[in-house]
Amino acid sequence: MPFLRFKGFEKEWLQNASPVIIDEFARIAEVAKEKVKIELLLVEQITNSPLSVEIMMFEREQKKHDAIARMIHEILKPHGFENTHIFFILLSPSLYYKEGLPLQTKSVR
User: Fold this and answer.
1) How many CB atoms lie within 10 A of CB 3?
2) Would you tell me which of 40, 61, 82, 93 could form a disulfide with 77, CB atoms 3.0–4.6 Å apart?
3) Which DSSP letter does residue 107 get?
4) What tens digit of pLDDT does each residue of 79-95 get?
5) Does 2 sit behind a cis peptide bond, omega within 30 degrees of 0 on the bond before it?
């Protein structure tokens, strides 16, 4: 955790780019490199859809989200992927479970 999920990319390209993406993501998000997961989504497109990178993670300051998106864009752009859609799916620690238990218990107010 976090998960960076690429859709529409070639596996070989993503494998080659992954070390740089992981290093930079870990630095910006302030997480251990070992926690950053990169996945290639294999989807069957029914209608035309763009290349995309979805980032599932716990919420950070807006400036960190902006920096992560900018970093990914800057890595993709020289390879002809400048029109890739980059978006975040924000997770809640109280709704993220390990061993059947939430990482964080909601406090009742």
Assistant:
1) 15
2) 82
3) P
4) 999 999 999 999 999 89
5) yes
Question: Rounded to an integer, what distance in angstroms lies between the CA atom of residue 44 and that of residue 63?
Answer: 34
Q: Alpha-carbon distance 87 to 85, whole Å?
A: 7
Backbone angles phi, psi at 4, to 5 degrees: -110, 115
Burial of 42 (0-12, 13-18, 19+ CB in 10 A): exposed
3-7 sheet: strands from edge to edge: 37-41, 3-7, 52-58, 85-91
Six-digit token string for 102: 């939430």
Torsion sign over Cα 65, 66, 71, 77: positive
Q: Which of 38, 32, 3, 33 is nearest to 18 (CA)?
A: 38
Query: Rounded to an integer, what distance in angstroms lies between the CA atom of residue 58 and that of residue 75?
Result: 22
Task: Render pLDDT for 36-55 as a digit per residue (tens, 0 to 9).
Answer: 999 999 999 899 999 999 99
DSSP state of 105: P
Tell me what pLDDT residue 1 has.
84
